[in-house]
């Protein structure tokens, strides 16, 4: 396993489990709003939000708006709402299916080739989700 994958897994666990106490007290939209504000201010010290390269025309603004609203705001809101309703553990299990669904969309919609090793990895993801979701028998 690569080091960056381990770090990503660690922070996904923190992202899923850390806000559970906050979700008991505040709504998902309040938590996301504050998180994005604090994260945006913190990241602005690394990369200035005003130093954007490229051509900014009508379509660029439109696509950027769509990505912000649908790809970020609604996605995070849905994830935290799911964590509040079904719990962090089940939510993170369901989130692990996302790379698999993206791969399947790439195969069937974009005609991207998939090697046998890719299929094996997909099978391992699905089998892990199934094994973790099975109820454990009393020991």
Automatic annotation (TrEMBL):
Membrane topology: Multi-pass membrane protein
InterPro entries hit by this protein: AA-Vitamin_Transporters (IPR050638), EamA_dom (IPR000620), EmrE-like (IPR037185)
Main location: membrane
Domain EamA: 8-133
Sorted UniProt keywords: Membrane, Transmembrane, Transmembrane helix
Annotated transmembrane regions: 26-46, 58-80, 92-110, 116-134
Cellular compartment(s): Membrane
GO cellular component: membrane
Family (UniProt): Belongs to the EamA transporter family.
Name of the protein this chain belongs to: EamA-like transporter family protein
Gene source species: Epilithonimonas bovis DSM 19482
Taxonomic lineage from the root: Bacteria, Pseudomonadati, Bacteroidota, Flavobacteriia, Flavobacteriales
């Amino acid at each position: 396993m690569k080091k960056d994958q381990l770090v990503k897994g660690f922070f996904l666990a923190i992202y899923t489990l850390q806000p559970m106490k906050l979700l008991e007290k505040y709504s998902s939209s309040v938590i996301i709003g504050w998180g994005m504000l604090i994260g945006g201010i913190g990241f602005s010290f690394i990369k200035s939000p005003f130093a954007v390269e490229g051509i900014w025309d009508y379509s660029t603004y439109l696509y950027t708006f769509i990505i912000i609203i649908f790809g970020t705001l609604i996605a995070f809101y849905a994830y935290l709402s799911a964590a509040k309703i079904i719990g962090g553990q089940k939510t993170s299990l369901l989130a692990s299916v996302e790379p698999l669904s993206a791969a399947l969309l790439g195969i069937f919609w974009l005609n991207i080739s998939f090697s046998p090793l890719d299929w094996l990895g997909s099978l391992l993801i699905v089998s892990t989700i199934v094994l973790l979701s099975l109820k454990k028998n009393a020991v």
